[in-house]
Design goal:
By secondary structure, the protein is of the alpha+beta class. The protein has helices at 9-13, 33-36, 47-60, and strands spanning 22-25, 42-45. It is 28% helix and 10% strand.
């Protein structure tokens, strides 16, 4: 999977090019073997994004950070509301 998807998707959203080293589950599998092996539920992440940003997202439900223009990544952020 990482050979075909070599870059971290979270870094890419920030305009950073960083090698992915972890196959992350978009939806946490929590022991569900079918979800664990579902390749449509996989995403490539670097270890720092997996161990910090993704864990924070799973615990708080919020996407941390902003783009190069200062707009938050979190689609639910109040700045994103019309």
């Amino acid at each position: 999977f990482l050979r075909c998807n070599p870059l971290c998707v979270m870094c890419a959203k920030r305009g950073i090019t960083r090698a992915a080293t972890v196959v992350d589950h978009v939806i946490p599998h929590k022991g569900d073997e079918q979800l664990f092996w579902d390749e449509t539920n996989w995403q490539p992440l670097c270890k720092p994004c997996h161990d910090a940003d993704k864990q924070r997202l799973e615990k708080s439900g919020k996407v941390i950070g902003c783009d190069e223009h200062g707009f938050p990544f979190d689609p639910a952020h109040h700045w994103q509301k019309p």
